[in-house]
Design brief:
alpha+beta; four-stranded antiparallel beta sheet
């Protein structure tokens, strides 16, 4: 699995979760820190390009900024 971490607008977490989980089987979006609005994308390796493309399209609208760069380790117990 590939893990990407982003700080997002707090009020957008729920909407982002719905958008990305509609990509069934491709990724899971988990909240790592609700207070700081940090989310973790857990991405199936075969879909990395698809999901990162979707993130690139939405990052400005949802104020997404990548915060951690270790893509091989999860920050949570999901």
């Amino acid at each position: 699995m590939i893990y990407l971490f982003f700080k997002v607008k707090k009020d957008c977490i729920h909407l982002l979760k719905g958008i990305f989980e509609s990509y069934e089987g491709m990724c899971i979006l988990s909240t790592v820190d609700r207070d700081q609005a940090i989310v973790q994308f857990t991405i199936a390796p075969d879909f990395e390009k698809d999901i990162t493309g979707a993130i690139d399209e939405l990052k400005d609208e949802f104020g997404m900024r990548q915060v951690y760069t270790d893509i091989h380790h999860s920050l949570g117990k999901f």
